[in-house]
Amino acid sequence: MEKTAQDIIVRPIITERSMAGIAERKYTFRVADGANKIEIKKAVEKLFGVKVEKVNTISVKGKKKRMGRHEGYTSDWKKAIVTLTADSKTIEFFDGMI
Fold it and tell me: Is the pTM of this model over 0.85?
Protein backbone atom coordinates (compact mmCIF):
# COMPACT_ATOMS: atom_id res chain seq x y z
CA MET A 1 0.00 0.00 0.00
CA GLU A 2 1.34 3.40 -1.04
CA LYS A 3 1.92 5.92 1.77
CA THR A 4 0.64 9.44 1.13
CA ALA A 5 2.47 12.60 2.16
CA GLN A 6 -0.03 13.09 4.99
CA ASP A 7 0.79 9.59 6.32
CA ILE A 8 4.52 10.33 6.37
CA ILE A 9 4.47 13.83 7.93
CA VAL A 10 2.57 13.39 11.22
CA ARG A 11 2.86 16.92 12.64
CA PRO A 12 5.28 19.85 12.98
CA ILE A 13 7.32 20.17 16.17
CA ILE A 14 6.97 23.59 17.79
CA THR A 15 9.67 24.12 20.45
CA GLU A 16 12.14 26.91 21.19
CA ARG A 17 14.93 24.88 19.68
CA SER A 18 13.03 24.06 16.48
CA MET A 19 11.94 27.69 16.09
CA ALA A 20 15.59 28.81 16.34
CA GLY A 21 16.42 26.54 13.39
CA ILE A 22 13.96 28.33 11.10
CA ALA A 23 16.46 31.19 10.66
CA GLU A 24 18.81 28.59 9.10
CA ARG A 25 15.97 27.20 6.91
CA LYS A 26 15.65 24.07 9.09
CA TYR A 27 12.15 22.78 9.89
CA THR A 28 11.34 19.97 12.34
CA PHE A 29 8.57 17.39 11.94
CA ARG A 30 7.35 14.26 13.65
CA VAL A 31 7.27 11.57 10.96
CA ALA A 32 6.02 8.00 10.57
CA ASP A 33 8.32 5.41 12.16
CA GLY A 34 8.84 3.49 8.93
CA ALA A 35 9.55 6.54 6.74
CA ASN A 36 13.00 6.94 5.19
CA LYS A 37 14.79 10.15 4.20
CA ILE A 38 13.77 9.95 0.54
CA GLU A 39 10.07 9.52 1.40
CA ILE A 40 10.26 12.41 3.90
CA LYS A 41 11.90 14.69 1.30
CA LYS A 42 9.23 13.92 -1.31
CA ALA A 43 6.40 14.38 1.24
CA VAL A 44 7.63 17.81 2.39
CA GLU A 45 8.15 18.98 -1.19
CA LYS A 46 4.64 17.83 -2.15
CA LEU A 47 2.81 19.19 0.93
CA PHE A 48 4.49 22.60 1.17
CA GLY A 49 5.75 23.23 -2.38
CA VAL A 50 9.38 23.82 -1.35
CA LYS A 51 12.79 22.44 -2.40
CA VAL A 52 14.52 20.24 0.19
CA GLU A 53 18.32 20.17 0.35
CA LYS A 54 18.74 17.45 2.99
CA VAL A 55 16.92 15.48 5.69
CA ASN A 56 18.31 14.38 9.06
CA THR A 57 16.35 11.82 11.07
CA ILE A 58 16.46 10.98 14.77
CA SER A 59 14.77 8.06 16.53
CA VAL A 60 13.51 9.39 19.87
CA LYS A 61 13.22 6.87 22.69
CA GLY A 62 10.15 6.95 24.93
CA LYS A 63 10.46 8.40 28.43
CA LYS A 64 9.67 6.54 31.63
CA LYS A 65 6.44 7.81 33.18
CA ARG A 66 4.51 6.97 36.37
CA MET A 67 0.82 7.09 37.21
CA GLY A 68 0.70 6.45 40.93
CA ARG A 69 2.32 3.07 41.52
CA HIS A 70 2.14 2.04 37.87
CA GLU A 71 5.14 2.59 35.61
CA GLY A 72 5.40 2.62 31.86
CA TYR A 73 7.05 4.24 28.89
CA THR A 74 5.77 6.74 26.36
CA SER A 75 5.94 5.62 22.72
CA ASP A 76 9.15 5.75 20.70
CA TRP A 77 8.88 8.09 17.71
CA LYS A 78 10.85 9.50 14.79
CA LYS A 79 11.83 13.13 14.21
CA ALA A 80 13.05 14.68 10.95
CA ILE A 81 14.94 17.94 10.55
CA VAL A 82 14.45 19.18 6.98
CA THR A 83 16.85 21.74 5.50
CA LEU A 84 15.56 23.77 2.53
CA THR A 85 17.69 25.01 -0.36
CA ALA A 86 18.76 28.66 -0.42
CA ASP A 87 16.50 29.48 -3.40
CA SER A 88 13.42 27.75 -1.96
CA LYS A 89 10.51 29.65 -0.46
CA THR A 90 9.74 29.27 3.27
CA ILE A 91 6.99 27.14 4.77
CA GLU A 92 4.11 29.55 5.51
CA PHE A 93 2.82 27.52 8.46
CA PHE A 94 5.91 28.43 10.50
CA ASP A 95 6.09 32.09 9.40
CA GLY A 96 3.43 33.30 11.85
CA MET A 97 5.20 31.72 14.83
CA ILE A 98 8.52 33.57 14.69
Answer: yes
